[in-house]
């Protein structure tokens, strides 16, 4: 089974730009709107981040749509929301056997670039 997976959203320009930077030949590339993350995959991500909140996109349009107060959410709420709607996942997520890279902030992308450089 391929352990290197990347979860992204096709409608997200930032995701597409990030994915285009890397050779994903040996990766399972998953469009999360078409094929949402499973509970098992979320558990795997959680093992590496130790936090559902770290996987949660605070920019999701669903937050406002549902009238959520992010500050009052607990870990179990983040978990339920992540499984409930794909836009709650901070994207993209690069998941490997040992590491996880979540989101599109500069530091994360630099770590991802180093990861890919070590592979070549």
Automatic annotation (TrEMBL):
PROSITE patterns: ARSC (PS51353). It comes from the Bacteria. SUPFAM superfamilies: Thioredoxin-like. Belongs to the ArsC family. This is Regulatory protein Spx. It comes from Chryseobacterium potabilaquae. The gene is spxA.
